[in-house]
């Protein structure tokens, strides 16, 4: 597996926010404020958790399967299927923040074209580690959340609505402590959506 050079440049861009640079950073799996732990189209209709043929049901098994596919071959169609709808933002965030988040991600993430059809893991990163927390746990900023989620979530913890589960994960080489790290995968309104690093909304 190879991560494209353009994504590597995004990962190393520091404070520069170009396209989805900051959203899919290759920061280490540390838990500080900016480190991760662990075209427009509607989401695929096949993402229903009630569909027995769905390869990515809305549970831990489906989350892991989706992460594995992204790591091995993050194709454009699959990535675009993770584009949240306006209703998804409203379901995940408090009303005053939902609109800000939608505008921010549409401009900085989904407004870029196209999402590169490449794996999200670097060559040799064959191990996948996954963590999760409910939005209630994020709001309470529990020890589990502090240990497994980027510290930036503390800045927006009160913006979450109750009742959903957010996942964070990383791809590492066997035995390595750090690798390509991501966060913000959530099953909402019957499909998976990718809403990473929500604290960046506050920086706009």
From TrEMBL:
Record keyword Signal present: yes
Compositionally biased intervals (Low complexity): 31-52
Keyword terms: Signal
Region named Disordered: 31-62
Signal sequence residues: 1-30
PROSITE patterns: PROKAR_LIPOPROTEIN (PS51257)
Keyword Signal: yes
Protein name: Lipoprotein
Organism: Streptomyces bobili
């Amino acid at each position: 597996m190879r991560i494209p050079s353009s994504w590597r440049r995004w990962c190393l861009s520091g404070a520069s926010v170009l396209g989805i640079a900051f959203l899919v950073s290759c920061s280490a799996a540390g838990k500080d404020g900016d480190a991760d732990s662990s075209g427009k189209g509607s989401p695929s209709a096949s993402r229903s958790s009630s569909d027995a043929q769905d390869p990515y049901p809305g549970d831990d098994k489906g989350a892991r399967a989706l992460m594995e596919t992204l790591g091995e071959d993050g194709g454009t169609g699959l990535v675009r299927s993770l584009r949240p709808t306006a209703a998804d933002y409203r379901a995940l965030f408090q009303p005053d923040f939902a609109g800000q988040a939608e505008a921010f991600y549409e401009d900085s993430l989904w407004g870029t074209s196209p999402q590169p059809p490449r794996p999200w893991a670097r060559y040799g990163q064959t191990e996948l580690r996954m963590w999760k927390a409910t939005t209630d746990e994020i709001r309470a900023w529990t020890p589990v959340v502090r240990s497994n989620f980027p510290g930036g979530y503390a800045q927006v913890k009160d913006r979450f609505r109750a009742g959903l589960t957010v996942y964070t994960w990383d791809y590492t080489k066997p035995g390595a402590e750090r690798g390509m790290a991501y966060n913000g995968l959530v099953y909402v309104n019957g499909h998976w959506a990718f809403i990473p690093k929500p604290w960046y909304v506050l920086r706009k």
